[in-house]
Amino acid sequence: MSYLVLKYLHILCVAATFALFFMRGMWTLRGYPEPEETWVRVLPYIVDGVLLLTAIVMIAMAPRWEWSPWVQAKIGMILVYVALVFMVFQAARPRWHKVLAWTFAMLLFLLITSVSVLKRPGGIFSLF
User: What is the pTM (predicted TM-score) of this model?
Assistant: First the structure.
């Protein structure tokens, strides 16, 4: 499989992950009951799995110079993003913790995307 195909599959999964996280976050914040449809419970795991797999394969295919500062910054921010997502969907948290974590996770997701597009560790903030 070519690098370009992997890249576009990765970008498609990024968009799907964002849409699914936004939708599930809104349901959680509004207090909707846990969805019973199988696709709602399974699809985010499939999309995130493909996203992670394409990222790993692209890193393996890339030359060593690809481990530049922007890639390292992106990986660090992704770890923080995962922790925030966990806070949003953890049932024991107060509602205002979930709202705050969801808001920061959405903003961090956009920052991670800007780091990837601009290939700069500061993302959108490096333009100022």
Answer: 0.85
